[in-house]
UniProtKB/TrEMBL annotation:
Protein name: Cupin
InterPro entries linked to this entry: RmlC-like_jellyroll, RmlC_Cupin_sf
C-alpha cells in the first residue's frame, strides 16, 4: 500500500509495528502522538509560525528540497544551521527549534511526538 506522507503520518512503535495516522487535526489531539517514533513530511513556503520542543527524544529533520535556516536554541543562545538543497539536522531532546524558509521547502521529520510543546515565534 502506498501513502502520501503529507496527509498520512506513520508511527513506528517500539515493538516494530508501523501504524498509519491521518494528518488532518493530528496536532490538536496531543494523545494521538503516542509513545513511538512519528514520521511526518511537510511542505513550507513561509517561516514556521512558532518554536517547538520534543521532551521525549531527539528529532531527525531531513530537508528533502528547498532552503531553510534552522534555528536551534541551546544554552540560552540561538544557533543558525543553514540547509540548502538537501541536508539533515539532529535536534537534541528538549531543544527549542524553528525554521526560517528561504525557498519553498519539503522536510521529513522523525521524532517521538508525545509531549511536543510549542511557543510563539
Amino acid at each position: 500500500m502506498t501513502l502520501d506522507p503529507q496527509t498520512t503520518y506513520v508511527q513506528l512503535a517500539d515493538d516494530g509495528t508501523a501504524t498509519q495516522l491521518a494528518a488532518a487535526g493530528f496536532w490538536t489531539m496531543p494523545e494521538a502522538a503516542g509513545d513511538g517514533w512519528l514520521v511526518t513530511e511537510f511542505a513550507f513556503a513561509e517561516d514556521w509560525p512558532n518554536w517547538e520542543m520534543h521532551p521525549n527524544g531527539d528529532e531527525f529533520v531531513y530537508l528533502l528540497a528547498g532552503a531553510v535556516d534552522f534555528l536551534l536554541e541551546q544554552d540560552g543562545a540561538v544557533r543558525v544551521l543553514t540547509l540548502r538543497g538537501s541536508g539533515a539536522v539532529v535536534v537534541p531532546r528538549g531543544a527549542w527549534h524553528t525554521a526560517k524558509v528561504k525557498a519553498p521547502s519539503r522536510m521529513l521529520f522523525v521524532t517521538r511526538g508525545a509531549g511536543t510543546e510549542q511557543r510563539p515565534d
